[in-house]
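Review this chain:
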Amino acid sequence: MTQHLLRLIGDRAPRYTSYPTVPQFHDGVGTEAFGRWLGEIPADMPLSLYVHVPFCRSMCWYCACNKKLATRDGPVLQYAATLAREIAQAARALPGRMRATRLHFGGGTPHSLPPEGFEAAMSALRTAFDLSGMEEAAVEIDPRTFTADWAPRLAAAGFTRASLGVQEFCPEVQRAINRVQPFEQVADCVDRLRAEGIGQINFDLMYGLPHQTTATLLASIERAVSLLPDRIALFGYAHVPWVASVQKKIPYDALPGAEERIEQAHAAADLLVRLGYVRIGLDHFALPHDSLVTAQAGGRLRRNFQGYTDDPCPAILGFGASAISALPQGYAQNVTETGAWARQVEAGAHPVARGIALGAEDRLRRRVIERIMCDLEVDLAGEAFAAGEAPDMFGAETAALAPLAEAGLVEMTGSRLRVTEPGRTALRSIASLFDPAFQAHMAAQGAGKGAAPRHAQAV
């Protein structure tokens, strides 16, 4: 079954935290377009804010995020000052001082900011936006460098959720990814956060890591669950050394094979469900009281660059190097390199390098892909009709689903597509059938006429 599954779903596929995906972004969307888009946002639209801090005090070899090593405070403080200027510039382009109801600090490691840098960023956000109705403020945390003074600082700033990078507790695996953090260190971090009233705790765990086995992964899950995190994200390690050169430090022959990855993913999911977590979409798990469970049950689960979310905001403004904004008109990504990003901000320009405007078909396909990724089902004819398209618009995609239906990975009832529980592992590959750009690249690669975007493994 495993080899058959691999043949059916292919080797790699996008994660679909957006549609169109980032490889389709282009430099035709830049500073001018982004400024115009900001001015066109309705003044009463609630906003979601994302702040990217690309600095880490220690490099993890598995990480493919945009980050850089911070050995001194000076460059980090300069980054924070530029970040404050970028926030102010974006606010001036908006139709007024708008209301923000969600905030997420990601990285990198947000608490690599010195205290005065963190406060400068928060002060800029409070000045630029109305944060009085904030429903959730979340921050990503590295337990290894989370000092005692950070929990009260975050609580005072209004943060309500913290996401901790745990990955694995096996010492051999931790050494192989250059992230050594004993269980006690993670437990202490959780205790400090909860003592300050930051009670919503997320853990990130990973499978497919070097020297990892199903047994070490399951043992790590049991230890993680003993700390009662509200949410667990179980990500498959994406070995993309052509994107993240630091991953070249991980020997390829130390990685589990494709069949082992599938075994790890299935065993981990089964254990989390037995331990009382509700499965959310592809790779998230939450305790029954969590808002993700409520959102999933009500058909309100969303997917964006932070993963699965119940964030209903129709616009996300991203600040910092490489941050991506998702606006009603399209996506816009900032300059990735921190120096070039800073120079553009200091010149008074929105530091946008590329993006993509959304057409009617893009919006329809985005809706279909998001419902597949979130609900594991979608009425294809109904979505097409609602968008003013012919009900049989997805005829080619339906035909492409036939082998997956024969294998029991999906079910088709009229125009309604439903992904079965065995097919959940193949969710990204199923969604990719509705992505014509990705399929065209795959076809060109198969014909020897081009290379597909080199995405992470689909499982």
Observations:
- The longest strand covers residues 100-107.
- DSSP finds 17 helices and 19 strands in the chain.
- The two ends are 14 Å apart (CA to CA).
- Residues 73-93 form the longest helix (21 residues).
